Structures
1.
Amino acid sequence: MNVQELSALLQSKGVPPGAYSIGSDSSESYCLLPEQGSWRVYYSERGNRNDERVYANEADACQALLDLLLRDRSVQSYLRQN
């Protein structure tokens, strides 16, 4: 999976766009960034990168972000209500 496929999948599942950011840092959301030849996935909060993980390839990073979002309680609650 690449970032375009991930974006389409998240949209089709109804994951709120404010819960994640692909390609840029956005506070109070899960982020996926290409950086220094790797892919980084983390939760951005108050300018801090929490639980940052580094992946060697795009597919693994995309899968990690998808897993994080679908396990997040706020996202799960949103999906149940909508």
2.
Amino acid sequence: MSPNGDMKPSSTELTILKHLWRHKAQSLREIHVAIEPELGWTRSSTRKTVERMVDKDLLGLRNVHGLNVYHAKARKIPTLAGMIRDFAADVLGLEGPLPVSNLVKSQVLSQEELLELEAYLENAENAPEDDV
């Protein structure tokens, strides 16, 4: 997978990605403490999922003073754009991008990111199929 959204993360992987997009690099413990209320996972479940995400190239890993620190490698806008395109096509049966105006109340995207997402979806829609 490239960090440009070629792979669709699972819903639990998306929870971790959203946390790291918001909080940048964090240790496994910090990630676990943040997502445990939502997912109800044990620390070992968090560790296994984070390790799989590193293997899938969704997350990167650095060692900082002997502590493993993880960061999102999957870029936010391309990842979300791919998921939105898939949802619009697979679930809603729509051809073309879902209007970004439907996402203005998103707690995940800032106004600037909404504009970037809209441009990304428009460019992807106009690109040849091989380029998306």
